[in-house]
Design goal:
This protein is α/β, with parallel strands linked by helices. 41% of the residues lie in helices and 13% in strands. Strand 16 and strand 17 form a beta hairpin. Helix 8 packs parallel to helix 10.
């Protein structure tokens, strides 16, 4: 039986290293159920006997944190099986059953995603206005190696090429975002529309549909028009609600006849916390303990207004859905039998996921969030809480404004109680009174923040089921990056990550969680915000040194394609065969990349070195000619 003997067996994870002081060493024991080695039991036996724990709650109605089985966790099993195409079965999703409960149901959606600023480039072309990320990256010292997304993946010019990659993967859907300043340069509809930008997205959507790929469109993946930031202070200003609503209605008008899945905001937690408290992301503001809460408050109100606009004006005609995409890690109590640690783990999730999900599904911020921020605000001598409040009318208006819940998830933390001393300037991270830890045995294929902990995903999905009445869920972001400086096409770590996390979705489905689709993040290596191009999430590698920015499939692309084609994991032997073929294919691609790199190098020599040498030769000849003429006059 695996266990962690003490805190010395766990790494303390500090999201901001200067904010979380060391936690006193204390002995504790964390027990896990016995893990099952898939190689030790026959497949048919596993199919019949390995069952995950299930949350025995009604599928309708909202639960509380106490309803969640914190002490039950089974991270060791693996589910095999695919849905037989010719079987006579009862199929459905979200509370009903299909006959083989260890397989993905028919109609389960598979896709990949990206965002506008990270991939499109063409930052000032064809009438596009500047975004806050254009301004942020153009200031020195804000991004790793001062890199920018000015050209990014050149996705603006490579739509057909990238759709061909989607066809190769055999995905059902593609999650993309629209750049607000590309279609509305100042962010204000009454001032200017950019018809070339509108046409670009029309062409993109049409091309996807022509290739039987469903577009799932996010209205906002962080690229606020810079004019709105300069004039009004961006999401600190309540006027953003109406400006964004105008923009959303323009998108519904121009694209809604073909787009049936809309996301209002992608990961608004990062917009608020990283943009307006830590300043690590655009617009780069550090507004103490109020900035993030105020930005989030306006974003939640904006989301609700857009949902009502669609519901009242467009839904009957267009028959689409509007949701929001929330990204959250899972917080597991260090000692699940400790009430203090369970409470800390709940705060971790409520301050992250619940911050946005609770108002939408329950009508208000989580009680624990209101209590903790309110108490800390009072300790600071503030007359009111730094966490804003919703009026009774606003609570009613916001509650129920999501046709589906998009979930982004990347990793897990162990969490325990940690009381922070009184601080005159408190903020989001100290408001929570907790410390985050990681197990050093967890795989970390890429950067230090992203550990591969698949079982946390199932826990998160079941928590959502318990807390929010089992809503319709689309997994909108899930993936892992590489931090290696050298090109890594044989990305074994990503293969294992995808295999583990997708299998946990299968277990969650068997628990009755209403998951409809999965989006791998991401299609391409791309610009990763303040990390520049140093982290690589793509299933496809891009050679950014080559002016043509060619795309090369990694081993994970081939592996993911097999999962999609099989609609799951058929049996251990076939899944292992997928792995071998994927690793073989990446070796061949490496040879192609090496050859192309040599050609690129030769082209550089031809285009730069040779003209330079030729120019020097001419200059030398001129100098020699001058000396010759002087000596003969």
């Amino acid at each position: 039986m695996a266990k962690l003997s003490s805190l010395r067996d766990i790494k303390f994870f500090e999201f901001h290293e200067n904010r979380l002081p060391a936690v006193e060493q204390q002995l504790l024991t964390v027990l896990f159920p016995c893990q099952v080695d898939p190689a030790e039991e026959p497949w048919l036996l596993r199919m019949g006997t390995l069952r995950g724990w299930a949350v025995l709650l009604p599928l309708l109605g909202l639960g509380t944190a106490e309803d969640f089985p914190w002490t039950k966790n089974n991270p060791g099993s693996f589910y095999y099986g695919t849905f037989p195409a010719d079987a006579h079965t009862k199929t459905s999703l979200g509370g009903k059953c299909w006959s083989n409960s260890l397989v993905f149901p028919p109609g389960f959606l598979w896709g990949v995603g990206s965002s506008a600023y990270q991939t499109e480039g063409a930052w000032d072309k064809d009438g596009k206005g500047p975004s806050i990320w254009d301004a942020f990256t153009h200031r020195k010292g804000k991004v790793f190696r001062n890199e920018t997304g000015d050209s990014a993946c050149d996705g603006y010019y490579r739509v057909k090429d990238d759709i061909q990659l989607l066809k190769e993967l055999k995905v059902n859907h593609y999650l993309l975002s629209i750049s607000w300043p590309r279609i509305m340069p100042t962010g204000i509809k009454a001032e200017q529309l950019n018809e070339k930008g509108i046409q670009f997205y029309n062409d993109t959507i049409n091309s996807l549909l022509e290739n039987n790929i469903t577009p799932i469109v996010s209205l906002y993946h962080w690229d606020l028009p810079q004019v709105l930031q300069e004039k009004y202070g961006g999401w600190q200003n309540i006027s953003m609600i109406n400006y964004f609503n105008d923009y959303a209605n323009l998108c519904f008008e121009k694209f809604g006849d073909r787009v049936k899945h809309w996301i209002t905001f992608s990961n608004p937690w990062a917009v608020a916390e990283n943009g307006y408290e830590t300043g690590e992301h655009a617009p780069g503001l550090k507004l103490g303990g109020c900035g993030a809460y105020k930005a989030a408050h306006h974003i939640i109100k904006t989301h609700a207004k857009v949902w009502h606009s669609y519901n009242n004006t467009w839904r009957r005609e267009q028959q689409g859905m509007v949701g929001i995409s929330l990204t959250s890690g899972w917080g597991e109590p260090v000692d699940p039998h400790s009430q203090a640690d369970r409470d800390a783990a709940e705060r971790y999730i409520q301050f992250h996921l619940g911050w946005f999900a609770n108002p939408i599904y329950r009508g208000d911020y989580p009680e624990v969030m209101k209590n903790y921020v309110g108490r800390k605000s009072a300790q600071q001598g503030l007359g009111t809480s730094r966490l804003p409040t919703f009026s009774v009318q606003e609570k009613t208006y916001i509650k129920g404004t999501s046709d589906f819940l998009g979930i982004g998830h990347f990793t897990t933390r162990y969490v325990l109680q940690k009381n922070f001393p009184f601080l005159q300037v408190s903020g989001y991270h100290t408001d929570r009174d907790l410390a985050e830890l990681v197990d050093p045995n967890w795989p970390a294929p890429g950067p230090k923040w992203l550990y591969s902990v698949p079982w946390g995903f199932r826990r998160l999905l079941n928590f959502i089921k318990t807390q929010y009445g089992n809503p319709l869920i689309y997994v909108t972001e899930n993936g892992v990056s590489e931090a290696a400086q050298c090109t890594e096409l044989c990305d074994e770590g990503r293969i294992q990550y995808l295999k583990g996390y997708i299998n946990e979705i299968l277990k969650a489905l068997n628990d009755g969680v209403n998951v409809k689709g999965y989006t791998a993040w991401s299609l391409l290596d791309k610009f990763e915000w303040n990390k520049g191009f140093s982290e690589k999430f793509g299933l496809y590698h891009i050679d950014f040194k080559n002016k043509n920015k060619p795309r090369y499939p990694k081993a994970s692309a081939d592996y993911y394609k097999k999962i999609i084609s099989a609609n799951g994991f058929p049996n251990p032997r076939e899944v292992e065969n997928w792995y071998r073929k994927a690793m073989d294919s990446c070796s061949s691609t490496h040879h192609l990349l090496a050859a192309d790199s040599l050609i690129t190098h030769m082209e550089m020599v031809t285009e730069i070195v040779l003209p330079t040498v030729f120019t020097l030769c001419i200059l030398i000849c001129i100098v020699l000619l001058i000396f010759y003429l002087r000596n003969h006059t």
